[in-house]
Amino acid sequence: MRLTGDRNQCPSCGLHFNSTAAFDKHRTGSFTGFQRRCLTESEMLAKGMGKSKSGFWVGSPMANAGAQYWSKTPSEGVTGTQVSPAA
Predict the structure, then answer these.
(1) Which end of the chain is more exposed for a tag (fewer CB within 10 A), N or C?
(2) Where do the DSSP E strands lie in the chain?
(3) Handedness of CA 57, 41, 72, 11 (dihedral sign)
């Protein structure tokens, strides 16, 4: 995957994010005592995040009108279920 603009890859879990905001949203826990961790893919989906057709996680797929997003389950990969932006 090509990382241009604000796109980035998490050095801990290796997932790709479309923005720094999406990356920040996938991290949880206290900054003290080494309590920070990455959310699981299931936790990110439950938090309203989505994965773009190009493979980058986004913070809120519904906010990106005009783009196509696909739901993903951790064990099955892309399911083919399209999550359409709100009209």
Answers:
(1) C
(2) 8-9, 16-17, 27-28, 37-38, 50-52, 57-58, 69-73, 77-83
(3) positive
Share of the chain above pLDDT 70, in %: 69
* Domain residue limits, the chain: 8-83
Instruction: Copy the structure tokens of residue 45.
Output: 């989906």
Read off the pLDDT of residues 6-21 as tens digits, 9 standing for 90 and up: 999 999 999 999 999 9
Regarding pTM above 0.70, the answer is no
Cα gap 46→28, rounded to integer Å? 14
In degrees to the nearest 10, what's the CA dihedral of 29, 32, 35, 39? 30
Question: Tokens for 2?
Answer: 């090509």
